[in-house]
Amino acid sequence: MELLGIHHLSAMTAKAQRNVDFYTEILGMRMVKKTVNQDEPSMYHLFYGDEVGNPGTELTFFEIPMAGQNHDGNKSISTTSLRVPNDQALEYWETRLTEADVNHDGIVEQFGRKVLPFKDFENQRLMLVSDENDSGVAGGVPWEKSAADPKHGIIGLGPIHLTVPEIEPTEQVLLEVMGFKRIGEYKHYQTERDVVVYETGEGGTGAELHVHERTDLPPERLGRGGVHHVAFRVKDQEELYKWLDRLNEARLGNSGYVDRFYFKSLYFREPNGILFELATDGPGFATDEEEAHLGESLALPPFLESRREEIESKLKPVNYKG
What we know:
The chain has one domain: 2,3-Dihydroxybiphenyl 1,2-Dioxygenase, domain 1 (Roll). Helix content is 18%, strand content 34%. The chain contains six helices and 16 strands. An eight-stranded mixed β-sheet has the order 2-3-4-1-13-16-15-14. The protein is globular and about 50 Å long. The N and C termini lie far apart (38 Å).
């Protein structure tokens, strides 16, 4: 049993249309699924990814129109990285973000790689990371119709950053339950504090967690511009059940098996309270839409289809050029 890398990450927005505009028109990602939160169908759940939303490329957002601003802090998923092919791509993105008046810190080095930290319109903490020398989990394929140059396009999720008050309990779960390996550490470019790096599967940018230990921060208050959870890749449903057994043996409270239609999942919180998900690689987003038309209309899983009229009446239309 081995987790294959990062599967997806789900964040919060208060403005679905502005979110679509930013992630598709500025960042050039493809909206691969426009659906709803299956636990609360009155809110959108928007998925962005590579050409078909391959596992490891999916950045997703729940829309909560009245959500207050996220209060950054501890016990949180504190930065989301997005992979680009090489250092030259980072130079392209530095120019593109500047021209779009996107707040960024310029290109800096982190753990032997060049990165470009930036924020979206709701202060979502993001970072482009270069795959110049990466030899780990393969990235995805940028959409050929992307608003950004596909040659420099985003190819998936990179290292996910966690901030915790005590690193030891989190490390214990990562190493002893989830099978991660501790591979190094570095000084953060702003705080000069140590950041510990863990990897799973084939390693590399698509399979890393970077954990910051901060005793000087209050707990994060989740809102727009914050991150709800991060998911890790599991090969298939059979292996997901084995992970369920492992979590139960470790006495980690969890959701049990959950069918999300596009993938199968299970959820649990690590000791510092951060929500983790394990999700299968399939069946994928082309299950109910043709690949050529992903994200163009509201997709609902079968168990919500009978409520389509009611659900659509409560959603404000979102325009996506596709």
